[in-house]
Amino acid sequence: MSARYLFGLFPFLFLFLAKSASAASHQPNFVLIFIDDMGYGDIGPYGSKLNRTPHLDRMAEEGMLLTSFYAAPVCSASRAQVMTGSYAPRVSVPGVFFPAGPKGLNPKENTVAELLKEAGYATMCVGKWHLGDQPEFLPTNHGFDHYYGIPYSNDMNRRSLKDGRNVCPLLRDDKVEELLDGEGQTRVTEQYTKEAVKFIKAKRDKPFFLYFAHTAVHVPIFPGKRFQGKSKNGRYGDWIEEIDWSVGELMKALKASGADEDTLVVFTSDNGPWASKGSDGGVATPLRGSKGGTLEGGVREPTIARWPGKIAKGSRCDAVAGNIDFLPTFVSLAGGKVSAEPKIDGRDISGLLLGWTTKSPHEAWFYYKGTQLKAVRQGPWKLALSPQSLGMGIKERPQDLLGKEVRLYNLDEEIGEVTNVAAENPEVVGRLQALAETMRADIGDGKTGPGVRPAGQVDNPVMLYPAEERRRGKNVKKAQAGKPVDWDLLKVGDVIAPASAPRISGQAFSIRCTVSSATPDGVLLAHGGSAVGYAIYLKDGELVFAVRSGTSAVHRARAKVRLNREMQIQADLSKKGTLMISTSHAGEGEMINGVKLINRHPQEDFCVGHDNKNPVDPEAPRARWKGVIQDLKVTVGNAAKK
Ligand SMILES: [Ca+2]
Fold first, then answer.
1. 10 C-alpha to center of ligand 1: Å?
2. How many domains does the chain have?
């Protein structure tokens, strides 16, 4: 039987097979371009007349516009949705992560990258990650073969202890490759694009998944040199136009590598524009609201999908979908299956993309802000459940958004969410309220529901590079980096920022002080935390000098004390690695040999009479010490004893 005869006889059978099993027989590539803080009205296909976006215009002409495509209101939450296919509060990522925070996306979650990797894909993450910066949480531990990017927002820079510059780290996989100041940030879009192009063009015998999350266009705005001053819309427009250039480069690379027709490319943003930043923020026109809020402008994203020969040219999809759908959609197109447990919220929208249906697979869309369920949408109807805001940083509080009563909008008739039609549509209100109740019983609303899974957590988070602590308690001495501490004035309760604390890194050092203690327990002084640092504390009437030199081992030298008597204390870590502590009334205490010098500057505060963060020694008492400390001084280097 000839092939021609087969085709002639069973065209419908082949069509059917192609439709249901195409993915299994041929796995497409996926490129997900994820912009930061770009508004609904910031690109040509969505009506921008200010920003020139020829490559995106062309992508839309060759693909599909998704006009009701939703994200979460802020960065980390939105990225958690992309990675897990779940509403952000379900995976306990309600807000935003900060550098060296203890939390991140739980390594136990099945990310879209992990599932695609299991299905045989090469995976790479380029750009902003923002799901935790500790090794456990980085892309390389979440299913990506490789990572290249700034792991959080570009305004989360810290002052480097090395050279005093305000910098963000640029990581390759899990290692810092470069510390980027403002000048460095003007290079990121181009550098990211080069990496992405390299990944697309790499010779390989398997399909690929590229998750390209731009640092742009989050404030501070840093367009590349070639784009500065070129747009009609200030530096914000310059950066949008650089993103558009980047999209063009990716398209070129796909064509050059012959992968164009095998690749689904999706372009979208993580949340609405940061409108309170004025001309440095984008616009959500014609939507109301902005980043940080659950009005449409905060969460409805300009989204384009392109897949030559698969997605109809110049098509448009108005059905409700969102970034929780990437995971099940990509996995389905890759021929895989998402297991029923753990539960996800996303749905396979390949039917919408490929034009088999115009109906949303979602019964409703749920608008979470943090852990609060603020609104629910079904079809054209959106029910606001509690007061809403115009967005992050906007002081104006319009009366119509503040009512405790629910408010119903028909988004088909009025996309700008102004006219409350709840009174005229009680049955719609009732239906949407019932849907909200169902979700409250699952993920919760304010309180955590039974369907919530925990975030990942580590005990001892550290900065990716030596940097000055940004948060300061009210007692913190705001001395310049390197400015010496005024030891004569130090008293119990004082805190010295790490930049001003003694530079004991790689050095022998001595501590002396005179104390009288009212309690048998408490920390006399502590500098550093769980990775590196030192502390002197009293416990059960014994004096302990504890040092941690970069490993989990804590070295302790002990000395006897008599309480309620003034005593001088001398503690030393010598160049030869001897740790010792002695007191004026009990003489020399223990000597511990073989202790390494502390190899880097502790990044936590120098605290007197307490330890305000991760303890140097987990065995140290946590309660604040009651006593008096005088003549405290830390001497470093040659001046230190021995
Ligand atoms: Ca964002």
1. 50
2. 2
- Tell me which of 331, 362, 393 is where a domain ends: 362
410 domain residue, yes or no:
no
**Residue 599's closest CA among 515, 531, 526, 512?**
531
8 Å CB contact between 577 and 595: yes
Q: Which residues, in sequence order, are CB contacts of 231 under 8 Å at separation 6+?
A: 50, 51, 52, 237, 238, 240, 241
CATH of the domain at 566: 2.60.120.200
Residues contacting residue 352 through CB under 8 Å, at least 6 positions apart: 66, 317, 319, 321, 358, 360, 361
* Residue type present at position 540: D
Distance 427 CA to ligand 1 centre (A): 36
Domain stop point among 340, 362, 384? 362
- Tell me the pTM: 0.73
Specify whether 75 is catalytic: yes
Q: What is the pLDDT of residues 565-616, one digit of tens each?
A: 788 899 999 999 999 998 887 777 788 999 999 988 888 889 999 888 888 8
130 in catalytic set:
yes
**C-alpha 78 – ligand 1 centre gap (Å):** 8
Residue 170 CA, ligand 1 centroid: distance in Å: 18
Residue from 71, 63, 59 nearest 268 by CA: 71
Tell me, in angstroms, the distance from the centre of ligand 1 to residue 194's CA.
Answer: 23
What CATH number does residue 211 fall under?
Answer: 3.40.720.10
* Residue found by looking up tokens 């830390």 in the block: 634
Please identify which of the residues 75, 317, 513, 607 carries the catalytic annotation.
75
Catalytic residue among 55, 130, 142, 214: 130
Radius of gyration of the chain, Cα coordinates, nearest whole angstrom = 29
